[in-house]
Fold this sequence. Notes:
Blueprint: E1 12-16, H1 21-32, E2 36-41, H2 44-56, E3 61-65, H3 71-85, E4 90-93, H4 109-137, E5 141-146, H5 159-179, E6 184-191, H6 197-205, H7 209-215, H8 225-236, E7 247-250
Parallel strand pairs: 1-2, 1-4, 2-3, 4-5, 5-6, 6-7
Helix pairs in contact: 1-8, 3-4, 4-5
Amino acid sequence: MDAKSGILADRIALVTGASSGIGAAAARVFAKEGATVVLIARREAELAALVEEIEAAGGQAAYLVGDVSKPQDAARAVDFTVERFGRLDAAFNNAGIGGDQTPMHLMGDDVYDAIMDTNVRGVWNCLRHEIRAMLETGTGGAIVNNASVGGLVAIPAAAPYIASKHAVVGLTRAAAAEYARQGIRVNAVAPGTTRSEITVDWFARNPGLEEMVHGMTPQGRTAAPEEIAEAAAWLCSDRSSFVTGVAMPVDGGFCNQ
Length: 257
């Protein structure tokens, strides 16, 4: 596709958790669809290689290293985007971590804190600063948060992970309702099991889990990260202009069970 005619042509987009998995796939898809992408994650080597790849394909990209669970890093990412490219049109708040199938009564507070800090506080931090930047520009924008089917239903996995993704859906709906009149749309994608470093590690540490999840999914497979990224790109584009406050399952039919 000619990036000039893509669904995100001339957009300035921020992608968090962009060094691997769904985030890296989103960086590629957004750039292919015409966006200038700013990437943030904690691993510089992976970010630098991804920016080089996007630019070699004719796209425009930049990166900074940071951890969006820290308010100052989320603010820095938004400010960097605006200073470098003039505005922020779209954002995909993707950064997140998973959890084990440890029974709730055996789980330590440190696990709960780590999951909540990244999955909920990270989205909270980003939303606040992204919305601020869009309001200052006055031209609206689109934000997509990465939730999970675990934010729509309960599955036998880490309880804090399920709680964190329900919270992401709640933040999405609250922000959508609050800022719709200012032209800012806020939605979430709710992926089913998706191939990434997190899921490969998760399945390795929890034998039988992959087979169990596939058995619960009508399509019977794990998604490619690009399939989630394509949905996020559509939600960031004008093709979804009357869609806000939605947590859209991208799950092979999992939530229909």
